[in-house]
Amino acid sequence: MTQEDPVKFVAPEVERWVYPAETKENLDWAELTTIDISTFDQPGGKEKLAQELASAIQHDGFWAVVGHGIPKTEVERQFALGKAFFGKQTLEQKATRTVKFEDGDYFGYKPRHVKKMFGTEVRENAELINIPKFTESGHFEDIHKELPFVQYFRDEIEPFSKKTYEVARKLFVLFALILELPENYFADKHKYDDYSDDHLRYMQYEPRSAEDDAKVENNWARAHTDFGSLTLLFSQVVAGLQIKTGDGENSQWKYVKPVDDGIVCNIGDGLSFWSNSFFRSTIHRVVRPPEDQVTAPRLGLFYFVRPGDGAQIEVAPSPLLKRLGLYKELKPITGTLYVRSRVKNYHDSTSYDKRAGEKFRVGDFEIADGFE
Ligand SMILES: O=C(O)CCC(=O)C(=O)O
Ligand SMILES: [Fe+2]
């Protein structure tokens, strides 16, 4: 696209979002802990919530949050914006700023079908837009300017991004309490106004034929752990997300259930490193939805918290970890370096492969990155 020939942005009409119907199929659902964080600011509230979360964070690495205070109408409006973005903008209008996987830069638009899967001719089927934070010092203004849809709806997207981060901030306090650290230990390393690759994401999977799906073992997103510190997934009605529960031979894939007005959260690599694997960065994947849900696109709304420039990843000097014999001194690595290296390693190729048995490592920090 040349200077003389800019893509013309046309504001789409945004229709009210209606959630798809829940599946009638009897799926093997994961039993996830739900915490109601409306009590967070009450006396003793966060300590009690930390207790409620402690087991889930070690074993499943996934849990649900309700009572988060973000009005349902605002969540639905974000789904509506996502639907309008994918459905009503042309490819050119969507692709004014695309991800740069070669630099580990995951901001902007990623079209679908750019990569093959599992050594077949079948292409992956998700498109997404990752919207950087709106920081006080304007770290990402240049990127926002390249995304006219985001500029146009900024009055709604910016406050939503900040409110979602605020839920994450409360969870960071709970993580610190669980590890008996000063309560802002993790929150201070993940400030909204600091430089980091955090993003609000709209993501839409386009259904594939059953025949193509079968060639890739019904995988819509290959098994992975999340690269950042914490992921927030606004309740997804279309089944397909599965988490690997249990260990070794006893492990099983279980489906994540929709949680009315809830946010499903999971630990990413960063918090697994800070806790020397005490917090579990759980392996998950997305598979072809059940037949009563597979006809429509599957739209998701997320906030990914990533450790940034100011976050040194190391094992946290936690009294609990010390008592458990899990504390050790490792050479710290910078959050942004880890995240960008991981994005590049994972995405910068022409196909998504299983990589069974592979590990990804930066400095002293290593995580499994290949699964059968
Ligand atoms: O689409 C989903 O439900 C999950 C996607 C996911 O795991 C990811 O993008 O990291
Ligand atoms: Fe994920």
Automatic annotation (TrEMBL):
Gene3D superfamilies: B-lactam Antibiotic, Isopenicillin N Synthase, Chain. GO terms for biological process: small molecule biosynthetic process. GO terms for molecular function: metal ion binding; oxidoreductase activity. Keywords: Iron, Metal-binding, Oxidoreductase. It comes from the Eukaryota. The keyword Iron applies. InterPro entries: DIOX_N, IPNS-like_FE2OG_OXY, IPNS-like_sf, Iron_ascorbate_oxido_reductase, Oxoglu/Fe-dep_dioxygenase_dom. The keyword Transport does not apply. Residues 196-307 form the Fe2OG dioxygenase domain. Coiled coil: none annotated. Belongs to the iron/ascorbate-dependent oxidoreductase family. PANTHER family: 2-OXOGLUTARATE (2OG) AND FE(II)-DEPENDENT OXYGENASE SUPERFAMILY PROTEIN-RELATED. This is Fe2OG dioxygenase domain-containing protein. It comes from Kuraishia capsulata CBS 1993. The lineage of its organism: Eukaryota, Fungi, Dikarya, Ascomycota, Saccharomycotina.
